[in-house]
């Protein structure tokens, strides 16, 4: 169940984690990523193209083409991927969707959501791809 991020963002996070768990400089065809993560190939390609535009992923055309990380895993934060795909509005808007929600005119969950939102943002901004290699390999093995 998606709580905060779109399915596209979830798949983007998974794809980048997958590439970060591979050997440095490894070129991963979208078919391979789709198969390993059980994500539709066309969706993977679209997601990785948008991550290419944001400078997180790079692509290589041709027979041995595919996608690879454009930066070292230690330089890619989880929040970078979220920002590239979903944007950061979720960290600034009302979780209940009230347009006039603010500290002066809070919705019923404004203050509690604000605490959770801040903690989520801090965690996503602090964590980099290199920290998840072993957990990612283990998780993908169980898909």
TrEMBL record:
InterPro entries: TR_Rrf2-type_CS (IPR030489), Tscrpt_reg_Rrf2 (IPR000944), WH-like_DNA-bd_sf (IPR036388), WH_DNA-bd_sf (IPR036390)
Gene3D superfamilies: Winged helix-like DNA-binding domain superfamily/Winged helix DNA-binding domain
Protein name in the entry: Putative transcriptional regulator
Gene Ontology, cellular component aspect: cytosol
Source domain of life: Bacteria
GO molecular function terms attached to this record: DNA-binding transcription factor activity
